[in-house]
Amino acid sequence: MSLERFINQQTSSWMSGGGPYSDVVLSTRVRLARNFSDVCFPTVFQFDDAKQIVEQINTATSKKLSLELLKMEDLSPLQKRVLVEKHLISPLLAESSLYGAALISEQEDISIMVNEEDHLRIQCLSSGLQLQETLNEANRIDDMIEESVQYAFDEKRGYLTACPTNVGTGLRASVMIHLPGLVLTRQMNRIIPAISQLGLVVRGIYGEGSEALGNIFQISNQLTLGKSEADIINDLGSVVHELMMREQSARDALVKTSHIQLEDRIFRSFGVLSNCRMVETNEAFQCLSDVRLGIDLGYIQHISKSILNELMILMQPGFLQQYAGGPLRAEERDVRRAALIRERLTMKETN
Amino acid sequence: MICQECHERPAALHFTKIVNGEKTEVYFCEKCAHEKGEYLFGGHPAFSLNNLLSGLFSSEPLFSSNAASHGEDEHCEKCHMTFQKFLQTGKFGCAHCYTAFDSKLTPILKRLHGGNTRHQGKIPKRMGGALHLQKELHLLREQLNEMIANEHFEKAADVRDQIREVEHKLSGEGGGA
């Protein structure tokens, strides 16, 4: 019953499109990697260890948090794919974990992955830019678990993780950010290398490098050791603020210098999405990005900002096939995707 | 831009690796990137940062010479992970591996974490008071140095008193444990 809910509930709370600075920042995610001290890491552990971890963590959280336990072995490939597309679980957990499981909150803003690369990956998601709040939430869950679990921790190296890239804080904070202005003004190619030198990673979330699909980028910290959690999120936060400022000035400049070209582009994309009968992922992303920019700039009204946040999740292959109730060929998916987008656009208009 | 691997298809993926300020850029087409296990984007399960990492570790002459001669003998007594295996997978087998391979770990951590080797963040509550006090002491000393540097001597005196207090508590904790 509850599995059905996670699969069929279309949107998670963090996709709502609200939250601070939501005209540029789509969502914030914080992940803490943790391991039990006396059990081998998932790299080498045995089935019994894996099972014990799931049982212990389920007991540890069930008292104070209301989370639903989903075991990977109980899910169909399509169900797992939908959870991956919702960012609730990772492809690694879905496909190659030993007795992998996830504990997910009703709002889908908390997901604890169990027996992925580490015993625990505590993930919290929020809409907009909310680094401190999201970290606080992850810490709250971490503290709660720690009351009944002895973590692998070393005074010198911090929280011990399977991969040394995560050791120390075990913290990966990331921000998903929509930067059409910087892409249109061709500034991303210069910005990405500069950010990389600050110990942060930028990647196109659904595409590659500077040519990110839908102009959506994910920025996260690379270093986990030698800095406090507060310093890590402050550094990330200040870079995000800098990017938001530059994005704003790029948008201002575009409106000032190419007002009619910009308006034309936005309404053409709106036209495509409102009328298409078949659409591929790439084109859909690009048009959605334009429409979202149009909403942010006030060209397009009566459509919710959350359209980009929601549709970028819902128009993925797993979701489309879940709605259809079975596998679809690429062409059939393009038809379904177009129908979904059209339906979504008219729905928002009548609201 | 043509793929650097097959020299046929157009490059679809662009990787920038920055290690200690040294920048390496590579371009692959989707197929080659996939085959190389460096399919970084789109959350593909074949994506493995570890492949990149293990390449990084084993390219270190310090390790390759060591590992070639007697690397196989070095292992973690708890989970039996060998250092050689760690270099291949980029992953440890258990918490004890960090102790077992401690001497070799420092240069690796330095490379991965911008020269850092010591944890400065959160400490589990149940680790006991001493660690928390040590951390507090560390922070206070940093504050003290900063204040002296900025010639805020009155405030510095307050912080110095706080340091004494924490040191006192710490010696109490140490004696009790």
From TrEMBL, chain A:
GO terms for cellular component: extracellular space. Belongs to the ATP:guanido phosphotransferase family. One of its GO terms (molecular function) is protein arginine kinase activity. InterPro entries: Arg_Kinase (IPR023660), ATP-guanido_PTrfase (IPR000749), ATP-guanido_PTrfase_AS (IPR022415), ATP-guanido_PTrfase_cat (IPR022414), Gln_synth/guanido_kin_cat_dom (IPR014746). It comes from Domibacillus aminovorans. This is Protein-arginine kinase. Appears to be allosterically activated by the binding of pArg-containing polypeptides to the pArg-binding pocket localized in the C-terminal domain of McsB. SUPFAM superfamilies: Glutamine synthetase/guanido kinase.
From TrEMBL, chain B:
Keywords: Coiled coil. Residues 134-169 form the UVR domain. SUPFAM superfamilies: C-terminal UvrC-binding domain of UvrB. GO terms for biological process: stress response to cadmium ion; stress response to copper ion. PROSITE patterns: UVR (PS50151). GO terms for molecular function: cadmium ion binding; cobalt ion binding; copper ion binding; zinc ion binding. Residues 130-169 form a coiled coil. PANTHER family: PROTEIN-ARGININE KINASE ACTIVATOR PROTEIN (PTHR38430:SF1). This is UVR domain-containing protein.
